[in-house]
Amino acid sequence: MNEETSRENAGQGTGEPFELSLQLRWSDMDALGHVNNARIVTLMEEARLRWSRPDAHTGRFEFGLVVASLQVDYLRPVLYRPEILIRVGAVRIGTKSFTVRHAGYVDGQPVFDGTTVMVPLAVDRVSSRALSKPERGWLESSMMQP
């Protein structure tokens, strides 16, 4: 998938939401000519992964993250177009989980709003663990309005 990287570095510890334009494909449409609801969830995942990806220097989420809960409010149909803008940021930080907000926009209008509760994995890649101090600091710097 191609993407415009207009502000792809925002939200990675900068105190502002991560913002990413993702390209839509013709095959993303459903029988009604709208972007399929399952594809919206995939776009949320793509944006969230780009936002939370660890880099070799941070040690952030080194054993991975899992989705514990996912909610999406579809605000209006998304008709096929070349791209969609998605903003991502933390909205809640717990001890062993955090909540991510994903807001999608087309032509400046909100089209979906979703949240995902994420849980960091321990070294066994199965058990949950508490967020580390650096992870918590990064999440705090990536907060977004709920």
3D structure, described in words:
This protein has 146 residues and is an alpha+beta fold. The protein contains 2 helices and 6 strands. The protein has helices at residues 37-52, 133-141, and strands spanning 3-7, 18-23, 65-74, 83-93, 98-106, 109-120. It has a 6-stranded antiparallel beta sheet. A hairpin with a 4-residue loop joins β4 (83-93) and β5. The protein is elongated, with a radius of gyration of 15 Å. The relative contact order is 0.22.
The global form is elongated
Low-confidence parts: 1-13
**Largest sheet properties:** 6 strands, antiparallel
Helix content percent band: 10-25%
What is the residue-averaged pLDDT? 87
Terminus-to-terminus distance? 28 Å
Strand content: 35-45%
The beta-strand count equals 6
Strand order of the largest sheet: 1-2-4-5-6-3
| Helix-strand makeup class | alpha+beta
Structure annotation, total helices: 2
Kindly provide the radius of gyration, computed on alpha-carbon positions and rounded to a whole number of angstroms.
15 Å
Element string (H = helix, E = strand): EEHEEEEH
Write the layout of secondary structure elements.
Blueprint: E1 3-7, E2 18-23, H1 37-52, E3 65-74, E4 83-93, E5 98-106, E6 109-120, H2 133-141
Antiparallel strand pairs: 1-2, 2-4, 3-6, 4-5, 5-6
